[in-house]
Amino acid sequence: MTNYLFIECRDPFESKDTQFVAETATALKQRDNEVTVFLVQNGVLAARRNARGSHLSQLAKAGVRLLADDFSLRERGIQAAELLPGIQQSNIDALTDILVRENTKAIWH
Amino acid sequence: MAKYLSIVERAYHGTLEEQDDTILWISHMVKKAGPDVTVLLRANAVNYAVAGQDASGLTFGKAALSVPPTLDRDVEELIKAGVAVCVVREDLADRGIESGELVGGVTPIGRREVAGLFDQHDQVWHW
Amino acid sequence: MSNKTLTLALMDPPYESANSTTAFRLIAAALQKGINVNVFAYEGAVALPLRTQVPHPNPIKGTTAEEQHHPITSAFISALFEAAAASGAKLDWVNCGMCVDERGATEWVDGVRRGGPGDFAKFARESTNTVVIGTR
Description:
The complex is a heterotrimer.
Chain A: E1 3-8, H1 18-30, E2 34-39, H2 56-61, E3 65-69, H3 70-75, E4 87-90, H4 92-99, E5 104-108
Parallel strand pairs in A: 1-2, 1-5, 2-3, 3-4
Chain B: E1 3-8, H1 15-18, H2 22-32, E2 36-41, E3 59-60, E4 63-64, H3 71-80, E5 84-88, H4 89-94, E6 107-109, H5 114-119, E7 123-126
Parallel strand pairs in B: 1-2, 1-7, 2-5, 5-6
Antiparallel strand pairs in B: 3-4
Chain C: E1 5-10, H1 18-32, E2 36-41, H2 65-68, H3 73-87, E3 91-96, H4 97-103, E4 112-115, H5 117-126, E5 129-133
Parallel strand pairs in C: 1-2, 1-5, 2-3, 3-4
Helix pairs in contact in C: 1-3
């Protein structure tokens, strides 16, 4: 089993390619890996519960851990209460810790 | 030996000025340094595997871009150098590219096989 | 001090992408934890440590250069080298040589060194983890 960390800086409104992360992260989870998607920069724009066309519910249902960078959220005025259930606020320190964990592959998207 | 998966997504950004795709180039250079490298062409970069690309003939006043990129040949050279070059089948189909249009030696894979490719490599570099 | 090392490959030039700021945040966080950091600056990213960058005023806001305190990416990089020294971690910043040459981006702040893809391959081989931040 491997730990996969996707650092998602893109949002589904500007980029259709967020679907690549949704599909690949889900497939990796189905292959019995631990998978985390860390939303940063505009990646957090998909994190509002009322966002339309967000790929994040699909990931949450698949058991992928969803984290959102607290600075990116604050920078965009997104409050914790607005977040889609299943998304945890996180921070760059936590991201660093995950990056240097054993047996972890990191993919920036 | 370490195995790296080098994923190319964006295409034709600066390739004329650089005379190549800088990710195909660095993937080739890393291969020369020793490790095993697989290149995955996805999204628009699947077009790099199309044979017969011609970027010649550009001039700007009296200055000529005299050595244009030859991306299809670069893909062939990567394969000759022992780099496995995979291309996502559905991304080809989305762009209306038939398998007969591709340079030889490229390996089409389905989107569903990408996760397996991730598992087979020690590091995944998505450029 | 940690015995871990993180490698980042960067491509974005300054002021064009949020990626650069996030990269600096990651580097700072890692160094603070005593994690060694290697940076392979490729393509436009070789301009991040240019010592010739100069801050400017903002005529819309009516500020002087001093008041505006415009971010200078090379100053951030110098500060990261200082942070490394303070924590005992190592920051190794390599500017890809051919990328430097074609851009004429030759004057860097102290600490940055010239290198090439061989350095990146070595970093990837020897690090705890490698994050490639491509450009769009």
